[in-house]
Amino acid sequence: MADLVVATPDGLYCPAGGFHIDPWRPVGHAVITHAHADHARAGHGAYLAATPGAGVLRSRLGAITLQAVDYGESLTIGQTRVSLHPAGHVLGSAQVRIEHRGEVWVVSGDYKLAPDPTCVPFEPIACHVFVTESTFGLPIYRWPQPATVFAQIDDWWSANARAGRASVLFCYAFGKAQRILAGVDASIGPIVCHGAVEPLNRAYRDAGVALPATHAVTGIDKSALSGALVLAPPSAAGSPWLRRFGEASDAFASGWMRIRGTRRRRSLDRGFVLSDHADWPALAEAIAASGASRVIVTHGNVPVMVRWLTERGLQAGAFATEYGDEEEADGSETGS
């Protein structure tokens, strides 16, 4: 039987269904796993995505022809049955389940297993072939409990506020910023969000996600800025916008903060290990939960993951893709 999904110059393609998944060049029919810019691009004829992420997609891509479907809703596309299932990555993130002549493939997009109140948790889907990311596919990447990280952020913010310093926390505008908002203790002080973050906050609120009150820098009394938590994308570092806060301590929330040298290279005061991708144990858990005998790796630490899977008796391979390691990106639109 021919493969249900193949790699083409335009992106991952399902010949039996006549559609692409997260294509990187314009195509007629695109199934989108989530709205980060390396997976959801402009120019496609028609889009299919999970309902919770529709607002973010429209916010990012403008007027598109979008069919939004509920998680688990099954559609006939070409000769296939297709359904979208929670990936736990960001709001609206989905795994794509494709069934054709008794064979099931799942294309997982990006995903995490850690708890996150801003999106529906990852759902294991049984399949014959599982297509996985491997952004943090090295044994060194093991995340602390999110509650521990949020307690660390709260302690840092509180100490800065007592010292009369703003707390500038660099984080990716879509997904990470909203997860931080939902996790910190908003009673410590005001929260100011960069202009790249606030439109996404609105999309989350419109989707029913509870977030604390946030302010634009121009919408808050200047005297309150010294005790504020400031959420901004990495691209804001060194910008005139940040100078409005005067003396400040800065930090970065990312899975890359697991490597101490990364924080030093960015000359940050603090680094908080918080990722919207699966760590090494979670990647192994998700792959095992799928029951797949064949696994295809799309991006990240691909050779390491393929070798590790092969050593464990699975049929493993890779697709060459143009998906980025979002947490290395600038983050104003693409990061997580």
SS-based class: alpha/beta
What is the class of the largest domain in the CATH system? Alpha Beta
CATH architecture call of the largest domain: 4-Layer Sandwich
| Fourth-level CATH superfamily of the largest domain | Ribonuclease Z/Hydroxyacylglutathione hydrolase-like
Total DSSP helices:
8
Question: Which spans of ≥5 residues are poorly predicted at pLDDT below 50?
Answer: 327-336
Q: Roughly how much helix do the residues carry, as a percent range?
A: 10-25%
The number of distinct β-strands equals 18
* Rg for CA atoms: 20 Å
Largest β-sheet summary? 7 strands, mixed
Note the run of SSEs as H and E.
Answer: EEEEEHEEEEEEHEHEHEHEHEHEHE
Sheet with the most strands: spatial strand order: 7-8-9-10-11-17-18
User: What name is given to the CATH topology of the largest domain?
Assistant: Metallo-beta-lactamase, Chain A
Distance between the termini: 37 Å
Q: What coarse outline follows from CA principal-axis ratios?
A: globular
- Quote the beta fraction: 15-25%
pLDDT averaged residue by residue? 94
Q: Count structural domains.
A: 2
